[in-house]
Amino acid sequence: MPKYWMVTNRNRTGSQLGAQRVALTYWVAEEAPLEDLSRWSQLSAGKFKEGLLNTARTFPALQPTGEHVDQKHVCLFVHGYNSSWAEAVGRYEKLCHGLFAGDAGLGSCVLFTWPSHGSPADYLPDRSEARESSQDLAELLVLLYEWLLRNQAMATRSPEAACRAKTSLIAHSMGNYVLQKAMQLAWSRKNKPLLVSLINQLVMVAADVDNDLFASGDRVDGSDGDAMANLTYRVSALYSGRDAVLGMSAGLKHFGKRRLGRSGLDPNVPRPDNVWDFDCSGLFPPDQPNIHSAYFELEATLDLMRDILKGIDRKELRKQY
């Protein structure tokens, strides 16, 4: 079975992937380092899906249901501010080693990499590219949604056919903006279903989005936050006021709202019951450089992500961390 999985809308440039948006392509790799495209094999969408399903079928079927925290995952990772494809796969590789590798790992992780410009001075072009890339991520989410519905129908007829993997998603920085727009598109294309969990656990890491994104609360108003809350069982936003990158990002944009990944959820607006935030500032050493990226490098923050994905109750997480 492949160890690494990638879906991308980046163009191919020799032994790398570039910064131009193209149609989605699907890739797998057996071993690192991943920065050389020759280590990757391109598959058709059908072969990629078949391979991922076969991998999920090797996961243990957990009984009784009370042991759900140990169930394996198929997790999608959407990166954010990266100046190159090499940086994107480098972060993905670290995430795989930190959370998904080995028998004790959480399962399999799939990288969605999009053509991000990666410079604070290029923020506005990056935001434009992010909105365009959201259409491609939405295509992927719709395919996942349709597969989950078919799987649920099969499990109703034959319990042994039930899926052995939870679906989860980790998005970093502006990758959360890509996801925000993609989930709205996917929700709209499927006629805005309510209470259908496409994603079990969504972890928004240092999210470069408005902190009133979920201001609709439990009302159905068709907003981006409404779509995300309705397609997800639980949304966890990790933030830190010490994140200098998001401080600079907010200063450049002047969009009128604080960044979710720097200040947490806006306390002055309602929020859906399945959305919560966690201040990670205390998990970083006092002299920690580049907190914006350090979430993926420190044991404490990786442990927190692991427990969130497992589905540990938020009250218990606040006690432990």
Helix and strand pattern: EEEHEHEHEHEHEHHEHHH
Strand content: 15-25%
First-residue to last-residue Cα separation: 35 Å
- Helix count? 10
Largest sheet: 9 strands, mixed
Compute the average pLDDT.
Answer: 89
CATH topology: Rossmann fold
Tell me the CATH architecture.
3-Layer(aba) Sandwich
How helix-rich are the residues, as a percent range?
Answer: 25-40%
Overall strand count:
9
Q: Can you tell me the overall shape?
A: globular
Alpha-carbon Rg, integer: 19 Å
Domain count: 1
Strand order of the largest sheet: 3-2-1-5-4-6-7-8-9
Main CATH class: Alpha Beta
Uncertain stretches: none
Task: Report what the structure shows.
With 321 residues, the chain is α/β, with parallel strands linked by helices. It has a single domain, classed as 3-Layer(aba) Sandwich (Rossmann fold). β1 and β2 (16-29) form a beta hairpin. It is built from 10 helices and 9 strands. The protein has a 9-stranded mixed sheet, sandwiched between helices.
Topology:
Elements: E1 4-13, E2 16-29, E3 40-43, H1 45-57, E4 72-78, H2 85-100, E5 107-113, H3 123-157, E6 165-172, H4 175-189, E7 199-205, H5 224-230, E8 232-239, H6 244-253, H7 260-263, E9 275-279, H8 291-294, H9 299-310, H10 314-320
